[in-house]
């Protein structure tokens, strides 16, 4: 760690230990489980229990301070938490004079429409132009290297890989893990990293982090929402964010074709005991020129079904694979279930990829669901 970065970190630590205080113009601490009085700079009231050791944070800062260029990646078909966390961290690293390159490993490289309002997209580069063997690589919101798609090989070739993630199913890839399953969103860990680097919470960083926080907590409706998540939101909103405009971009806009594809999905919906499910094909989307990324919100409508404990939506991607999103109301751990199918996620929200038919995919899913009940 350079003397300059060390001095800033020590200044932040002193501010965090002052009751009710943080350093002027900087971010306060956050934690996955939340905001207890007497927390230290990293917001951790106690060691262990899924928290990140202080030595791990120190090592991460050492690596970042010593790097001239940082290559950042998030999972394929990025959501608000993945892309927002990555771009927010990119802004902070740029302020330290680092060269930053960011990407995600989709064959059809394009930012999902609902996230195109996020600042910092000039940092993004197609996966084909990403450094083949980065000296330092950071991944965001990816529980496994396979979730990085075309950038999977870049992880293997990188000298150092810092993994920033909050999924319980995190596989432990990379050379250093900033992983806390009790964090409500990866954005909370990104804020921690930015804070420890001495970054200031400006409007661009706050916008990216807020997008990550609200998407992964379902606008603070999911059970993973902690007091610390609300405290973090207060810090972000205090920068002057127009939360109504962000909400409109994330949830209240869609092309007309989405309504047609939604109608097709609802026409196929099946209620099978405590499971409600449906699917959307490439043909459905092609009829209205609807990109795959527009299907993200269908699961959140299907899961409302009162009679079902578990919901699933199968979405055929552009390569013909089925991307399966699942949700649970808490009685079933869909994260563990999806992990058995090669995917993963959280107890109440998870997913996996299937290359089998719809019928075969759902037969296997129902089999595992029956064992889990």
Strand order of the largest sheet: 6-7-8-9-11-10
The biggest beta sheet is recorded as: 6 strands, mixed
- What does the overall shape look like? globular
Tell me the series of helices and strands, N- to C-terminal.
HHEHEEHEEHHHHHEEHHEEHEEH
Briefly note the structural class of the backbone: alpha/beta
Which stretches of 5+ consecutive residues score pLDDT under 50? 9-50
Quaternary assembly:
single chain
In whole angstroms, how far apart are the ends? 50 Å
Report the portion of residues in β strands: 15-25%
Helix content: 25-40%
**Got a strand count?**
11
Number of helices: 13
Alpha carbon gyration radius:
20 Å
Name the features.
alpha/beta; five-stranded parallel sheet; globular; six-stranded mixed sheet; 373 residues
SSE topology:
Layout: H1 3-17, H2 54-65, E1 69-74, H3 80-95, E2 99-104, E3 136-140, H4 152-157, E4 160-165, E5 176-179, H5 186-196, H6 203-216, H7 227-237, H8 243-251, H9 256-268, E6 270-272, E7 275-280, H10 282-286, H11 298-302, E8 310-316, E9 322-328, H12 334-340, E10 344-345, E11 349-354, H13 358-372
Parallel strand pairs: 1-2, 1-3, 3-4, 4-5, 7-8
Antiparallel strand pairs: 6-7, 8-9, 9-11, 10-11
Helix pairs in contact: 3-5, 3-6, 5-6, 6-7, 12-13
């Amino acid at each position: 760690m350079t003397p300059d970065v060390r001095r800033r970190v020590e200044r932040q630590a002193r501010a965090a230990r002052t009751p009710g205080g943080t350093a002027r113009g900087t971010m306060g601490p956050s934690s996955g489980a939340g905001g207890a009085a007497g927390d230290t700079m990293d917001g951790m009231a106690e060691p262990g229990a899924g928290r990140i050791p202080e030595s791990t944070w120190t090592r991460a800062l050492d690596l970042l301070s010593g790097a001239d260029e940082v290559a950042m990646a998030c999972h394929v078909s990025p959501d608000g938490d993945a892309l927002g966390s990555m771009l927010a961290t990119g802004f902070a690293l740029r302020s330290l004079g680092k060269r930053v390159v960011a990407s995600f490993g989709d064959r059809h490289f394009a930012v999902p429409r609902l996230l195109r309002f996020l600042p910092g997209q000039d940092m993004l580069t197609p996966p084909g132009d990403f450094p083949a063997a980065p000296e330092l690589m950071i991944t965001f919101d990816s529980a496994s290297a396979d979730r990085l798609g075309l950038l999977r090989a870049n992880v293997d070739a990188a000298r150092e890989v810092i993994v920033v993630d909050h999924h319980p199913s995190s596989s432990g890839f990379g050379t250093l893990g900033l992983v806390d399953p009790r964090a409500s969103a990866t954005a909370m860990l990104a804020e921690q990293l930015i804070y420890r680097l001495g970054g200031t919470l400006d409007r661009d960083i706050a916008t990216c982090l807020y997008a990550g926080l609200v998407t992964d907590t379902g606008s603070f409706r999911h059970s993973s929402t902690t007091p610390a998540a609300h405290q973090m939101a207060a810090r972000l909103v205090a920068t002057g964010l127009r939360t109504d405009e962000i909400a409109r971009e994330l949830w209240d806009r869609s092309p007309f074709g989405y309504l047609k594809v939604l109608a097709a999905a609802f026409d196929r919906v099946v209620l099978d005991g405590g499971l409600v499910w449906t699917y959307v094909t490439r043909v459905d989307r092609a009829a209205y020129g609807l990109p795959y990324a527009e299907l993200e919100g269908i699961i959140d409508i299907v899961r409302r079904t009162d009679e079902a404990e578990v919901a699933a939506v199968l979405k055929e991607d552009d390569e013909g694979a089925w991307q399966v999103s699942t949700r649970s109301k808490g009685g079933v751990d869909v994260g563990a279930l999806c992990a058995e199918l090669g995917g993963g996620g959280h107890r109440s929200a998870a997913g996996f990829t299937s290359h089998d038919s719809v019928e075969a995919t759902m037969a296997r899913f129902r089999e595992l669901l029956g064992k889990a009940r």
